[in-house]
Amino acid sequence: MSEKSEIVAREERMPEQTSKLATLTPLVDIFENDNEILLHADMPGVPKEEITVNIDNGRLEISGTRKLSATGSITWQEFGDAEYRRVFSVPQTIDVAKVNAELQDGVLRLHLPKSEKAKPRMVEIKAG
């Protein structure tokens, strides 16, 4: 076996090691009423300090990093550190200054209030 083919064979046997986290898409529920759009995103194990919410030019991006710490040797592992990431298009009628978020029991709740001009209104009919 030549030296070159030996290196190639050795590289094929070695598992690829990367430092990137697994990227997961959080499951979401989206509700809409006359006043707001409410988005619930499932992000278990992500502390609020690791979550970012960006709204820019009709684009909503949520992301968060879950880092698990364990003691002892791993006997079985089916999930570990991961990054949650999801992007949505949102209407320009969202009042970005009033958007708020809360995290409870691993669920991120985003309140995206509609601007006044986007809310439905009743039109009075006048007699002629």
UniProtKB/TrEMBL annotation:
Domain named SHSP: residues: 18-128
Family, as annotated: Belongs to the small heat shock protein (HSP20) family.
A Pfam family annotated for this UniProt entry: HSP20
Matches recorded under PROSITE patterns: SHSP
Protein name, entry field: Molecular chaperone IbpA, HSP20 family
Highest taxon of the lineage: Bacteria
InterPro entries in the cross-refs: A-crystallin/Hsp20_dom, HSP20-like_chaperone, Small_HSP
UniProt xrefs under CDD domains: ACD_sHsps-like
